[in-house]
Structure formats: structure tokens, C-alpha cells
Write a structure and sequence with these properties.
The protein is an all-beta fold. It has one helix at 8-11; strands at residues 15-24, 32-44, 49-58, 61-72, 77-84, 93-99, 105-111, 119-129, 132-140, 146-156. The N and C termini lie far apart (33 Å). It comes from Roseisolibacter agri.
């Protein structure tokens, strides 16, 4: 029997999901944009890795993204790569963080700002129960202030 890894709790989310996504754009009016969202969670590599492929829309235009999540068990470090058709276009954001005992993921990567020091992007996946999960994304200033960027809430899609 294999030892459970921190990715294993996320592997329990395997399947199809449906919900709502909220994009926060404080520089626009309105500052919040809601859309329908779908996700497919797929465990790979004996459940040690997970992909989360999702769809959403902005102003009626379809968008999609992918999270690839893994875990380095000896150092208790989670790794993720993230791409999204609206947020970035040419390369994935590489993130590092952790998965806690409850199965909640928190990873963070940095990106260059137009001026000044780099900013960060934090991605969290919370699994309050077996029937729901949330993806939360935050834009993080160089000083460490987090601002909500995305909140997606999912429920199992049994259709």
C-alpha cells in the first residue's frame, strides 16, 4: 500500500464539476464579473498529481485554464503550474506552496510588474466537503497585500 501524499486529498475530487466563477477587476466598472464555470479534476501518476481543467467566460467570451498540481513528499512542498487564456498567454505560472492536513492547497508564484518589483499570484483550493470545492486566486502586491482576483465555487456535476 502506498503512503498517501498531499495531492491525494485533491485526487478525491476526481470527476466533473459545475458552478459559478467571479472575476474581480477593481480597475473596471463593474468590478466583479460572474460566469458559469465547469471543471474536470483528473488524478494522474497514481494520484500523486492532479490536473484541474476548467472553463469560464468573460464578457461573453469563452475562457479556459489548467492547473497541474504535484507534491514533493520528503520536503512537504506542493508544486503547481497554471495557465489561463485570460490571465496569461505565453507561459505558465510556476507556483510553490503546501497542501495542509485538511487537503487545502495554497501555492504562490511571481510575475514581473510593468514597473517596480515583481508581484505574486496565490492560488488556493479548498475542499470543505466531498460534494464541493473552491478555487480562490489572489493578486499579491510586493508588500504582501492580497487582493481577490478569482473565486470559483464548484459542486459535483452528476449529469
Amino acid at each position: 500500500m502506498s503512503t498517501p501524499t498531499a495531492a491525494t486529498p485533491l485526487a478525491s475530487l476526481a470527476g466533473r464539476w459545475r458552478g459559478t466563477s467571479r472575476l474581480f477587476t477593481p480597475w473596471t466598472t463593474p468590478a466583479e464579473h460572474d460566469s458559469d464555470t465547469t471543471a474536470v479534476v483528473t488524478p494522474i501518476g497514481r494520484g500523486n498529481f492532479v490536473t484541474v481543467a476548467y472553463t469560464w467566460s468573460h464578457e461573453g467570451k469563452p475562457c479556459n485554464g489548467l492547473l497541474f498540481i504535484g507534491h514533493e513528499t520528503k520536503r512537504e512542498v506542493a508544486h503547481a503550474s497554471w495557465v489561463d487564456s485570460w490571465h496569461q498567454h505565453e507561459h505558465p505560472l510556476t507556483c510553490v506552496g503546501e497542501v495542509d492536513a485538511s487537503g487545502a492547497l495554497s501555492v504562490r508564484g511571481s510575475y514581473p510588474a510593468p514597473e517596480g518589483p515583481p508581484w505574486s499570484w496565490r492560488i488556493a483550493i479548498e475542499t470543505p466537503d466531498a460534494a464541493t470545492f473552491r478555487i480562490l486566486m489572489y493578486n499579491v502586491t510586493p508588500e504582501g497585500e492580497e487582493m481577490p482576483a478569482v473565486e470559483s465555487r464548484y459542486a459535483r456535476d452528476d449529469a
